[in-house]
Amino acid sequence: MFVIRFLSSIFNFKEYRLRHLALNVLMIVYALGALGAYLINILQDEGERLYQKQVIALLGGALAILVISLVDYHFVAKLHVLFYLINIGLLLICRFSNSLPIYGWSHFDARRWIKIGGDPTAGVNNPGFEFMPSEITKVALIICLAKYFDLCYRKINKIWVLFGAIALMGIPILMIFLQPDLSTTICLAMVFAVMVFASGVPYKFIFSIAGILTPIAAGLLWYVIQPYQVILKPWQQRRVLAAIHPEDYPELMYQQTNAKSAIQSGGVIGKILAGDTGPRGTRYVPVKESDFIFSAVAEEFGFIGSVAVILTYFLMIMLIIRIAKRARDYLGTMIALGIGALFSIQVFINIGVVTSLLPNTGIPLPFMSSGLSSLLINLMLIGVLMNISMQPKDETRRTVSNEFEGL
Length: 407
Description:
This protein is mainly alpha-helical. The chain contains 16 helices and three strands.
């Protein structure tokens, strides 16, 4: 009996309503994934296997979505303490561990990766498997924060609830900032802000803290562009300065300048529909198959195709908000809103960087950019959304039940 009750808490089939499964979101995700895989195939250099890896990840992600969609999100949320501790543990390993079998790994001046196996002394030729623990932080932040607000909901009007949330999320966000990874830090901070705003915390608390933080943020922005600042690494400061004064840093704006040229060369309908088989501008764009894949969208499919992709993302976010609105309870609403906020912020930052509206960062375009860890994490979050969508509010269930009574 214990085993049956335990399995029922994981796979709560009696509460699921397949009629409400958000297949429209799933179709949009895989349409974006298919477009991304197609572009990666034509963008990858000879001998690379990025396209094959992307397709395998999309297929493996479909299996992950199927399995995760069957796991009750209430059970997942019960593991919030475990998720939080695992996340902190991985961030500590990333920062402090230097020996086999698992250790932190640097690319250039940023220690953002964890390596498993390989040879820590092999330099760039280290064959070990690597991943970014900050991708796991995104999942842990959403689940832990949603569960925290759910547990504190009856006292949501107390100021200590907001300070507790800040402390809870401030630790992993600070650790990511120190890697350093400014772009992910900003992304996570924005997701945190959206979830706090939607949680029911009194606006007087939010606006009071925002009123205090706004001048502090303005002062920090002024400070970090000064030659004597010590908060940012030199290369991070140069990226910020390049965004403000691009004419003074042509070497740092090389990637974004060439991305803009590729976007402009696509015209209205793009080179594919125009039958242009000539050389592509994206060949001069580094990491065009990853962080700058939107430049390939614009070059190949033009202004019309770019707008269509942006509108597709917008539709996906709106459908996720609808899932949050129809969720069975407050916990489901908060998790869905957190996931929607994460996707929308990543899209905004990525396209903002490619079009030179924002400083150059390392945020991928969800479901389209090459990158296995990011893609798989995003697909796993879609699995959680599928489960939330299958557990609608009681009002919706009664409506569905009444529809069948006359059959």
